[in-house]
């Protein structure tokens, strides 16, 4: 199908995708775009079709059918129609979202969606999946993380590229505003008759992100126009700061006489660090041992016990259980083992 048959797409939406793919270590043979049928992901698919064709990359559209809305079957058919318009294969996965997981329906749906995308990627030989998160999504994420008391890493919000379950997720539009994307989607509807679906949960304030979007964002829009760009820039600065602190933590860990597998370290060497660096390198080490990050209160208790243990001598033992694991200390060495 000649490129002229692709729907028009603004250069402002195409260029970030082109730059994202060119920045990869090597050009992928195939990529996928996650498409819900909404305006953002639909325009991501259109822009990706232009870039993939220009670079000789095979493109697929991944659609996850949550079954949470009565219209879900219609959305799946709508994505199929978009794929036909673009001349791109659409593959779908149906998921069951656990409503009683204790995480909330939003978190459960997100977890199910990523699991399904990873499964589709494995089945179809795709290593890179494009996501349509944009600058306004990033700003909302920063606000949500702030209100939940996230640390520096959390305030960095969504990364432009991240690895999850062996799949690299690419978010080329974190610097692109929602308004430009929605305007392009409206033009697509006018020119091709394909209208993006509208998920009612996006405007339902019972859902946390929708509450930010419908109740908090209008107030910010009125008082601080363009606040999304400012908050998204804050996320980039936090990501840079977090990277610097990780480099400091890595250097500190190297100075703690780590074991061959970095699974243990010297308590005496750790005790010589400043309190702030003690806490940071401990968080860094726990994360790299696959330990779920403890709450501030639990981490403070662990720090207190490690500091007291050192003061009382290396002959005393320590055992602190957390998330199915136990932090142990004996004869001056700290390590983690199954609880």
UniProtKB/TrEMBL annotation:
Biological process (GO) annotations held by this record are:
tRNA modification
* Reactions it catalyzes: cytidine(34) in tRNA(Ile2) + L-lysine + ATP = lysidine(34) in tRNA(Ile2) + AMP + diphosphate + H(+)
Q: Name one GO molecular function term.
A: tRNA(Ile)-lysidine synthase activity
Q: State where the protein is found.
A: Cytoplasm
tRNA(Ile)-lysidine synthase substrate-binding domain residues: 266-335
Concerning Gene3D superfamilies, the annotation shows:
1.20.59.20, HUPs
The family database entries (InterPro entries) matched by this protein are listed as: Rossmann-like_a/b/a_fold, TilS/TtcA_N, tRNA_Ile_lys_synt, tRNA_Ile_lys_synt_N, tRNA_Ile_lys_synt_subst-bd
Domain tRNA(Ile)-lysidine/2-thiocytidine synthase N-terminal span(s) in chain numbering:
31-214
EC category: ligase
The organism's superkingdom is given as Bacteria
Its Enzyme Commission number(s) read: 6.3.4.19
Task: Kindly list the GO CC terms recorded for this protein.
Answer: cytoplasm
UniProt keyword terms in alphabetical order: ATP-binding, Cytoplasm, Ligase, Nucleotide-binding, tRNA processing
Q: Which residues bind ATP?
A: 36-41
UniProt family annotation: Belongs to the tRNA(Ile)-lysidine synthase family.
Q: What domain comment accompanies this record?
A: The N-terminal region contains the highly conserved SGGXDS motif, predicted to be a P-loop motif involved in ATP binding.
Q: What does this protein do?
A: Ligates lysine onto the cytidine present at position 34 of the AUA codon-specific tRNA(Ile) that contains the anticodon CAU, in an ATP-dependent manner. Cytidine is converted to lysidine, thus changing the amino acid specificity of the tRNA from methionine to isoleucine.
- What is the name of the protein in this document? tRNA(Ile)-lysidine synthase
Organism listed in the record = Bordetella ansorpii
**Taxonomic lineage of the native organism:** Bacteria, Pseudomonadati, Pseudomonadota, Betaproteobacteria, Burkholderiales
Gene behind this chain? mesJ
